[in-house]
From TrEMBL:
Keyword Ribonucleoprotein: no
GO terms for MF: serine-type carboxypeptidase activity
SUPFAM superfamilies according to UniProt: alpha/beta-Hydrolases (SSF53474)
GO BP annotations listed: proteolysis
Superkingdom of source: Bacteria
Protein name: Carboxypeptidase
Gene3D superfamilies, sorted: alpha/beta hydrolase
Taxonomic lineage: Bacteria, Pseudomonadati, Bacteroidota, Sphingobacteriia, Sphingobacteriales
UniProt xrefs under InterPro entries: AB_hydrolase_fold, Peptidase_S10
One Pfam family per UniProt: Peptidase_S10
Length: 509
């Protein structure tokens, strides 16, 4: 499995919990259908409705939250799994036919939607400092930047993430755990959700983060071709490679601009570069990467000595590393070595998903960090926040464990053509727009690889007017910085509004 698919790798060994099948509970009075259970039993069809208010950009907004599960059906029409979701609808909307619906996924592929729900777009925000680091007491507060003012939002947890589970341990999980299997069953689930919530007329948007970008890129075409459901927008936050080919010298070279960004943040660049703003430094490095580094690395061991010296000197200059380390790596410094080496003399490693974070290893020697400093920090704050929120505020009571990481192995990563699927979906649908958001300090789904994907997504150049990329001075979860949260959510509002057709505007070329 490649390093992009393996983002947020599920190595914590959480065992698959045995769950039992429950049919839809009786609900003659239209009341909440949340079963009260003292065991770890999945209800495949459940819901709890609560009512709330939030102040967004100075405006008080009343909303309804529906938390529960909806089934995945097998070929005989029986529940095979229950998928957990949280749905936020703004109150007081008389006609939802023009009200945008945002369908939100995270990644892993074995993580739930907690990250963007409590960190980015939802009406509640986890307690953290202004840079996203944990603080106590754990908990949640209002999110003044939520996009609930302009769109209703549903957060979806794929099977074995959050509270989502197969109906029993005898269910074959291969039908869920794979690039294309994941897309297929989630498209069916979205159909059920949209039908039950009467949202077929609404403009629809998909947003995915990390592996969720693979998921929503594939869903864009699957929804059109298999569910006949057409979208207005797809948002990719910290995207994977989307199955777009990059190997050899291209793959080796594209990580350098990320190295530069991280070295700049930690003050490790030469003084003339360090005194510039990051966004003034990166274009120079990007130009070097495309026009000099890739051609030089294409020559491999047959590069002449003078050129090799010149290239090594520039890599060292732009990465904050010693030229000796660059040469010992044959000009191709691995991500792992970079995370270990950049601050080695200072006694720290840097994080993978967000290289602003620092870690401390058992020993200074070695070629990779002992642990992901950023991920343990995020689990530190998100885990208590979601457990407090679901039980205390949204009133969803269950003894199931909320899986921050659920077992989805073995994962079938073959035939990943999600980038091409997204291109085709955009080509087929003149309404469909794409926004990519990246953090400069993300070393797992780095920003320059995201740019490369954007460039390769549409070889014809005929669709580029509907494709956009944005960068932020943050990491994989770019919204954890207070300043970036405000900017990124405002950009989402703009994207949603600009992706809606004008009255009477037909979907045609």
């Amino acid at each position: 499995m490649n390093k992009y698919l393996a983002l947020l790798t599920l190595t914590c060994g959480i065992a698959l919990q045995s769950v039992a099948q429950n049919g839809p509970p009786a609900n003659p009075a239209g009341k909440n259908t949340m079963p009260i259970s003292k065991s770890r039993i999945l209800a495949t069809d459940s819901s709890v409705v609560t009512h709330h208010e939030v102040t967004i950009k100075g405006q008080k907004i009343a909303y309804t939250a529906t938390t529960g599960t909806m089934p995945i059906w097998d070929e005989e029409g029986r529940p095979a799994a229950g998928v957990f979701y949280t749905f936020y609808e703004r109150d007081g909307i008389a006609d939802r036919s023009s009200r945008p619906l945002v369908i939100s996924f995270n990644g892993g592929p074995g993580t739930p939607s907690v990250w963007m729900e409590l960190g980015y777009t939802g009406p509640r925000l986890l307690n953290a400092d202004d840079e996203g680091y944990p603080i106590q007491p754990y908990g949640i507060r209002e999110n003044p930047n939520s996009i609930l003012d302009v769109a209703d939002i549903v957060y979806v947890d794929p099977v074995n993430t959050g509270y989502s589970r197969p109906v029993s341990k005898d269910i074959a999980t291969a039908q869920f755990f794979g690039v294309n299997q994941d897309i297929k069953y989630l498209a069916e689930w979205i159909n059920t959700f949209v039908t039950r919530k009467d949202r077929w007329a609404s403009p629809k948007f998909l947003i995915g983060e990390s592996y969720g970008t693979t998921r929503v890129s594939g869903l864009a075409l699957e929804l059109q071709d298999a569910q006949w459901m057409y979208l207005n927008g797809v948002i990719l936050v910290s995207p994977t490679d989307l199955g777009i080919e990059r190997s050899g010298p291209v793959q080796s070279a594209l990580k350098l601009p990320y190295f530069t960004a991280t070295a700049w943040f930690h003050g490790m660049l030469p003084a003339d570069l360090q005194k510039k703003d990051l966004t003034d430094v990166l274009p120079e490095v990007e130009d070097f990467t495309i026009n000099e580094l890739i051609p030089a690395m294409s020559r491999g061991g047959f590069i002449d000595d003078a050129t090799r010296k010149k290239i090594a000197t520039k890599i060292a200059r732009y990465s904050g590393l010693n030229e000796k380390v660059v040469n010992e790596s044959n000009l191709d410094v691995s991500y792992e070595l970079f995370w270990k080496e950049l601050l080695r003399d200072k006694g720290f490693t840097v994080g993978r998903l967000d290289s602003r974070y620092k870690g401390i290893d058992r020993q200074a020697g070695g070629t990779s960090p002992d642990y992901n400093a950023e991920l343990t920090s995020w689990l530190h704050e998100f885990t208590p926040a979601i457990n407090i929120y679901l039980r205390d505020e949204l009133k969803y009571k269950t003894d199931l464990k909320y899986n921050m990481f659920g077992s989805v192995w073995p994962w079938d990563d073959k035939n990943n053509h999600t980038g091409e699927n997204l291109r085709q979906a955009i080509a087929e649908n003149p309404y469909l727009h794409l926004l990519i958001q990246s953090g400069y300090y993300d070393g797992a789904c780095d920003y320059f690889n995201a740019k490369y994907s954007l460039w390769q997504l549409d070889p014809s150049g005929r669709l580029k007017g509907r494709l956009k990329w944005e960068g932020y001075k943050s990491g994989h979860m770019l919204y954890l910085r207070k300043n970036d949260l405000a900017t990124a959510t405002e950009n989402l509002r703009t994207f949603i509004k600009e992706s809606l057709p004008k009255p009477g505007q037909a979907a045609k070329y």
